[in-house]
Design goal:
The strands form 3 sheets. The chain has a 7-stranded mixed beta sheet with strand order 1-2-3-4-5-6-9. The chain has 294 residues and is an alpha/beta fold. Bound molecules: zinc ion (ZN). The site of zinc ion (ZN) has 5 residues, from loops.
Amino acid sequence: MAAATVLATLPALAQRDFSKVEIKTTRLSDTVYMLEGAGGNIGVSAGEDTVFMVDDQYAPLTPKIIEAVAKFTPKPVQFVLNTHWHGDHTGGNESMGKAGAIVVAHENVRRRMSAEQFDSFWKSKTAASPKAALPVVTFTASMSFHVNGEEIRVVHVPRAHTDGDAIVHFPKSDVVHMGDVAWNGIYPFIDYSAGGSVTGTIAACDQVLGMVTDKTRIIPGHGPLATRADLQAYRDMLATVSGRVRQAIAAGKSDEEIGKMELSKEFDAKWGVRFLRGEQFTTMLATGMRQSGN
Ligand SMILES: [Zn+2]
């Protein structure tokens, strides 16, 4: 998701009173866990070598997150991998760094966090992050962490939710963390202002669908733990709705008109309740697709 100003208006996804947030831990394999609190879902690998974390939600939650991790390992968090730059996934970077973690991300995550960002969909600015919150290790295409009995593969997927997304594959544990490239049961925000696109999001979903089985556990950026079937349903919803939006653009409709055409009607009851409504989702796609061609 995007800026704090926006989150403040979205109680379902952003509880601003962090004192009431509880961290729920779900064990997915011998070494991999999913942590849910407020903000993007967290993945953790904890085992014989170290603790590797994917995303860190918001700074005020860092003590609770560290406490939740301490329930299944005595080791400190050594690495935090950011799936993308948004504050509900990177807000804990500075405090996790102070606690000793090394923050790792795609180079575009560091680039976007280093300067003020403006989002044209939300009409909101996000200030540059302090140096202490920036990733200190960056990569471009892919990288691996050889820890806890498996090669954890971090792969950049271009122009998906943003221009700096990473998906994280834990092959032995049979878990994939997709960051905000995948949302389970919630229409996604696609950050066109930060180089995202629905075309790239669909391509990234296809890439993951090609490497997982029905047994694989998929951690989405938002929403409950997902299966391959859930990811397939998400991908198909995106393809159907964006295809209709593309046709409407070709037919000369304005973004506002497209928003009123109910192009996502049969999906709204499932996907359009917790965050973006169908009209907002289709308007977002129309504006972004028209401007970017993707
Ligand atoms: Zn996001």
